[in-house]
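User: Some background: our group keeps a shared notebook of sequences we're curious about, and every so often someone picks one and asks for a predicted structure to add to the entry. Today it's my turn. The entry only has the sequence so far, pasted here. Could you supply the structure so I can complete it?
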Amino acid sequence: MPSGTYNFSPSLGSLGAYAFGRCGIRRPAITVDHLADLGMAANLVLADWGNSTPNLWLMSLGSISLVQGTPTYTLPATVTLVTDVYITTNVGSPPPTDRVLFPASRSEYAAFPNKLLQSPPTTWWFNRVLPPQISVYPTADGNGPYTLNYWAVHQDQDAVVGGATGLDLPGRFLMAFVDAIAVELAASYAPDRAQALFAKAQQSIERAREQDREDVTFFLTPGLASYYRQT
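Assistant: Of course. Here's the predicted structure to add to the notebook entry:
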């Protein structure tokens, strides 16, 4: 009979010990130095994966109460990408109404002649500074209140080796993660195995990313092409 449980959630230490085994280092041989390298490899892999956004498990919906005449708002420092923005009007008085805002590039936002123009906002610009900011155009007028809602991708939580700490990852990415940290560790401890481990890691991350998507047959897509190609 099957177990009837769904509790498989290994700690970074357990996954790391398995990855070291891929490099020919068995559990009794793992030292404090090995664990320090494991922590570094794990966080670097997660940071690298953050460049392959959007990672759906890291997305959340945030909201900002717009202030009349204020164009720019600071987002949480963990936000790495904003994908969708919509504005809610008639907040607190039914029925509320949602309206999609459209993205602008830095150059397009810079071209707006009066950035303090007041009217219901129609456009947003995500500024990837530290901490990140979002600007709206026009700025909110006095006919609100307006709530700006945004779907954002966040960075992964830190990978911590000690204390049986788990990972900020869904189960479908665990194999890809083990393969990825094995490649990083092999560069230092088993260079002769690195090429084979790299090939396996490429296959597993491709499978995981193939499933990290919304499975729909029809959806609306804002005009983002020019926005994301700007530098």
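Suggested note for the entry: The mean pLDDT is 92. Residues 56-155 form one domain.
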